[in-house]
Amino acid sequence: MNIIFVSDGMARTRSISLRSAMLLVGLLVLLPVVLILAFIVPHGSHEHQEVKKQLPTILNVVSANELTHIDALAQQLGEVEARITRLDALSARLATMAGVKESAADALPPGRGGPAVHAHHMSEQELKDKLNELAQSIDLRSDKFSMLEAVMLQKRLQASTLPSTMPTDVAYNSSSYGWRVDPFSGQMAFHEGLDFVAGTGTPVYASAEGIVTTAERTHDYGKIVKIDHGAGLETRYAHASELLVKPGEHVERGQLIARVGSTGRSTGAHLHFEVRLNGAALDPRKYLQSMK
């Protein structure tokens, strides 16, 4: 086999003679390449068609998974909003108990129940944003609960320091708060407390929690205990036969602090009980629960 090459520039020709053996070798080299191409091209096209057919199914699965995830987020959203509604109801009851007006917390957003938009109408990001918004709302309500807790604690402390407990087990009083005839002078005089008639040694109790400021004997009061309850409020327990506390001692409501006697300016065994605010005597009956 001869192959002739023609050169334009030189107008010359060259010929190459290929033997049959070389031609056979060339065919053997090219044949596998041709066969491989003939197999890969149709096969690749077939694979492409198969993937194309399966693509809708794959997309449906992905879409279904996304919807399931969104539905789960929407359910969480509903549960959180339901909890906020319950928290608001509880907060309102606590505010009433604490004597706090709801207007003090008007800055808080109102509670809501259930998702306002159907899950399929919201994207995953929108649901996440909504959950974050509700989380912030819960934080605000947590602050409100802390405020209510502080108010209720303060009220409980105030209640514990109000002299509302009877200072002795004997309810009968021989002299009330106000004007009376003085048993020593026979003249009208203002009685600044209550006198409870009781036998010598009868227990005397702290009417409220506080700090003992005085535990001593004086001319008029005899053996006396004074308790500071804070905010200018003080109670006095006079004419005792025995003092059982010392100045600086912290006492609880109902704690035994003295025993009834007749020391000082007294005509007989009794407990003289006073309540004072900033030094001024008040009617103890306004504080003592059993005498209201």
UniProtKB/TrEMBL annotation:
InterPro entries: Cell_wall_metabolism_enzyme, Dup_hybrid_motif, M23ase_b-sheet_dom
Domain of life: Bacteria
GO molecular function, one term: metalloendopeptidase activity
The entry's keywords: Membrane, Transmembrane, Transmembrane helix
Ranges that cross the membrane: 21-41
Domain (M23ase beta-sheet core): residue spans on this chain: 190-284
Full protein name: Peptidase family M23
